[in-house]
C-alpha cells in the first residue's frame, strides 16, 4: 500500500472500495509521517468511495504533520473535505467528475 519513491517522498496507494477500514489504514500511515515528509495519497484506482471513509480521511489529513497531496478524489469528495474543514491538500489533476 505504501512505497518510497526517489525524490517524491512516500506514496500511499489504495484501490477498490475506499470505506472506513481503508481510510483508517491511510490514517495510520499519515499519523506516522515525519513533519518534514512529503506524502502523496493516490486514490486514482478507487472504484467506490464511501462518504464516511472520506470523513475519516479528512480527520487524518487535518492531524497529519507532513505535507500531503491527494490524487484521485472526485469533485463531490473534494467538496466534502472542504465542508469538513480540510483545505490546502493539492490534488495533482487526476480527478474524475462528480
UniProtKB/TrEMBL annotation:
Residues 15-86 form the MlaB-like STAS domain. Signal peptide: none annotated. InterPro entries: MlaB-like_STAS, STAS_dom_sf. Gene3D superfamilies: STAS domain. Pfam families: STAS_2. This is MlaB-like STAS domain-containing protein. It comes from Anaeromyxobacter dehalogenans (strain ATCC BAA-258 / DSM 21875 / 2CP-1).
Amino acid at each position: 500500500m505504501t512505497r518510497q519513491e526517489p525524490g517524491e517522498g512516500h506514496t500511499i496507494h489504495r484501490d477498490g472500495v475506499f470505506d472506513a477500514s481503508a481510510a483508517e489504514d491511510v490514517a495510520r500511515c499519515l499519523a506516522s509521517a515525519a513533519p518534514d515528509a512529503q506524502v502523496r495519497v493516490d486514490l486514482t484506482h478507487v472504484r467506490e468511495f464511501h462518504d464516511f471513509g472520506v470523513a475519516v480521511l479528512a480527520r487524518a489529513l487535518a492531524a497529519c504533520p507532513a505535507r500531503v497531496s491527494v490524487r484521485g478524489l472526485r469533485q463531490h469528495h473534494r467538496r466534502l473535505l472542504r465542508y469538513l474543514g480540510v483545505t490546502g491538500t493539492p490534488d495533482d489533476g487526476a480527478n474524475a467528475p462528480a
